[in-house]
Every structure is written in C-alpha cells, then in structure tokens.
Amino acid sequence: MSLAAIVMGALAYGGRRGGFVHVDILAAVGGRRVTRYTDIVVRVLSIAVLALATWALREEARCGFECGEFTDNLEIVHTPFYWLLTVAMATYTLMLACELAIGLMHFHAPRDPFEHE
User: Fold this and answer.
1) pLDDT tens-place string over residues 4-13
2) What local confidence, expressed as pLDDT, does residue 32 receive?
3) From CA 26, how far away is CA 112, in angstroms rounded?
4) Mean pLDDT estimate for the chain
5) In Å, how far are 49, 54, 71, 74, 101 from 113, measured between CA atoms?
6) What is the Cα–Cα distance from 61 to 36, expressed in whole angstroms?
C-alpha cells in the first residue's frame, strides 16, 4: 500500500515534468492546429476519470475499519493509505485542470505552452 501511495504521488510530478514516454504522432501529422483540440479532449476525459477515482478513494477512506478495510492477518487499517491516495489523485486532477485552463488561454498561440523539448 505504501508503494501505491508513493507512485500515485509521483504521477503528478512526472506528468508535469514530462517524465513519461510519449509519441507525438498527432503533432507530427497535424501540427499545433490538431493538438490544440486533442489536448482539450484528453484533458477533460482525464480530469473526469481522476475526479471519479478521487471520489471513490475518499469514500473508501471514510469507511475504513468499519467496512473491513484492513489486512487479514495483521489487521493493519488501510485508511491512511486511502487518504494519501486521495490527496495524490486530487493533486493530479487539479494539475490537469490548471493545464487545461492555461491551454485554453493559449489556444491560438503558435506553440504549445506545455511542449517539452
């Protein structure tokens, strides 16, 4: 559970710093005029999925020990891990929302404000 919380916290950092492998086929084929629209669609869908996951994790964290959210053998409660995952997921959701807003502000710019070199 600790590893899952650490990895989820690192996703926001890696996403912001361009730490993930990606292939820019759409940018190579269509250029900025295509990616400005696809970026909006992808970010809106990502925000929706992450917001749903954040809500589900929060619900699990609120239930905790009463719902049997603990390990079978040592009875270690999962609640703190669920709260860490909730915070990490919410952070990544907010980061994507900010990127969406900044991308919309620079919609007509000739260069993508989040393009990593």
Assistant:
1) 777 877 877 7
2) 78
3) 13
4) 81
5) 23, 27, 45, 49, 11
6) 37
Q: Are 110 and 30 in contact (CB under 8 A)?
A: no
Instruction: For residues 30 and 89, give the distance between their C-alpha atoms in angstroms, rounded to a whole number.
Output: 32
Question: What number is the average pLDDT over the span 44-61?
Answer: 92
Phi, psi of 78 (to 5 degrees): -85, -5
Per-residue confidence (pLDDT) for residue 69, from 0 to 100: 63
Q: What is the 3-state secondary structure (H, E, C) of the chain?
A: CHHHHHHHHHHHHHHHHCCCCCCCHHHHHHCHHHHHHHHHHHHHHHHHHHHHHHHHHHHHHHHHHHHCCECCCCCCECHHHHHHHHHHHHHHHHHHHHHHHHHHHCCCCCCCCCCCC
Q: What b/e string do you get for 49-65 counting C-beta neighbours within 10 Å, with b at 16 or more? A: ebbebbeebbebbeebe
Residue 104 tokens read as 């919309």
